[in-house]
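Exercise: predict the fold of this chain.
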Amino acid sequence: MSIDRKILTTILIVALATSLMAPLATVNAQSNSLFKVTIIAPGNANLLRREWSQLFASNLQQLGIDAKVVYLGWTNVNERVMYPNPEFVGKTFDQGGYDVLALGWTSGLATEPRQNFYGGDPAFFAPSGQNYYLWDNVQSNTLLDTFITSTNNTEKQDALTQWQQLYYNEIPASMIVYQQAPVVVSPHIGNLYTPPTGGEGWLYFNAQPYPQLLKRDDGKTQIVYCSTGEIDALNPPEANGWYDTIVNAPIFDGLAEAWPTLNGLSDLETPALLTSWAPSNNGTTWTFNCRQGVTWHDGVPFTADDVVFSLWALMNEKTGTQFAGYYQGVYGDNVKFTYSNGTSVNLGTGNRVGNITATDKNTIVANLPVLAGGKPYGYFEPYLLGFANNIIPMHIFEQIAPVDWSTSCFNTGQGSMTIKGTTYYGPVGTGPYMWQKDSYDVTGQVVHLVRNDHYWNATALKSAGLFQTKDYYIRFIADKTAALAALKNGEVDMLDYNYQMQTDIPSVDASWGKVINLQGVGRQEFGYNMRHPVFGTGTATPLGQSDPSRAAEAARDIRIAFDYAIPRTQIISNLLGGFGTPGATAMLPTQPYYDSAITARPYDLAQARHYLQLAGYTPPGASNVVNLSGTLKYENGTVKDTYAVDLQVTTDNATYPTSLQEISQITTATDGTWSFSVTPSAPGTYYYYLFDNSTGTPAYTYLQSFTINAATPTPEPTSTPPPGTDYTLVYVAVAVIVVIIVIAAIALAMRRKK
């Protein structure tokens, strides 16, 4: 990044932070902090992620939290968060684990939150699974089980609607933004395709690249894809990142593939290494028919044994897979793998017994155990078959101990290995492009893949005028300015959307760059360590220590406070050039089953202070102003518009309701909403009730209690109203503590962070 660019970015951050908050008194986080939080902003792939992490940390500091941001490479992030050694699982950052991770996820081809958030099976947790949050919520697990076993769309929708609301209430991760993003490609590149959602090129830049389908009009037979990331793993069971996918997807085939001409959920898989698949016995048995005549890049025939072996590898934690939990959830945690020659191997000792058998060289029969509710996994179509290009060659990997897979040339692309007289230099697949000797220039950060003219679909592709690209390069350039210059100079042909070029689009000239705006490209989040003693379990919070039965409640309130401290709208407007939507849950607006009724919490440090107080903390900047608001509804859910309601209070809740006194009366708005603002003037505990007499029968709804010690309020919410409370109102009551105190010299503070 140039000096001018750095200065401009610093000014932007200072201006943004200044616009978000009134100048507060400086918080001495080190000596008087409520607790400590370290936010990890990983890698060089998304530099803007560092900026919004700093903004988040700055806001947490205003709340009295000792918050800081650290920039770690992906290797360190994997060791701490994604693939930690067992002794570091769930540990805090200071103990070798993590507190909060700023991370982005691609949206994938189909809705499947279970992959990241299921906690009903330990195998789903990192390091063997992708639930790095370590979230284990019984209600969440039940809803996700219902979703994954059901074949009824109405039932699936209901399960995920409830799940999204639960997620919003519990917040294992704060969604920052649902991303939209521009990509820039050479105007000579065509045939990127436009699926039903996402826009032109969505599949190429968000699911998997398919260079075999691209065309160009300038006669060149090479394409250079430019990315900002770095390779982590090339072997599919071990690879779990977009920057690995852009390299290994053209090398490996999957059971089925996401073809760009898809027109709906039912067509998310086009036959690839399988020609057909069919269920029987109420979905407990699946038969896979393999494509014949396919060869690996070394000339060895592909068979059903490769599929059986690949499933074993994906489910075996010793291979370094992070998909073990997911595949065990499908096929069982005690599975017998049988090859076409009759030999077999068992994996796991659980109670869910399954069998995966190659009945001959071309056929696999999988017998699935019950997953939940007496049903097996029910989401083969559209999700599992097109899950990834993850079929690997048995004849190679059966010769290597799983513990050595990660350091082999098949995973690193460096060095070589000789197996049964054949020397290999990198990954071997059945896909349209091949790895050759010296394909990876580590110094220049360039990968070179060569067209596989023996590809099983080569003839059909060429007859359709496709498969024109002979040489496919993936070039890694960290700096966005340098990447744009390379595109302008013709050195590269396509720029990955992770460059976050939202504010750079005006500089792109149509003579050298075509701008494509992608919708629903992914989500950015702050993921929380759900075993952290403060905001994970809550055992170290003041409330959790005084009342252990309420520790989880305290942790949740702190995560809600965090959620209110994220300036989503300003991040989108000022850092992302307006490309995005504030995020609320882990499902994107472009995905099936998304619940648009759930909206992101606004940026509100007063609300954040309030929820910290609920957990027993006393953040700086609190006042005696109490804001109460909610929505008045009938029992059938319709709102009560333009109805008179009273706010009443008592300091002697034992004699409720006779001791209640009216404070104020208002009329609800047309949407049923109401709000009151009061300022207790003397120390004591105040219990607030909403009074509604619209039905002729007095109804009191308990809202909130506040304890005023001198001039500092301490909220004491009651989860269940006192005995005798009339439940004729359905309400949403939120107590907000306002009056933001000013912080001086924020510009100087932000310069120090930079």
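Check your answer against the key: The chain has 21 helices and 31 strands.
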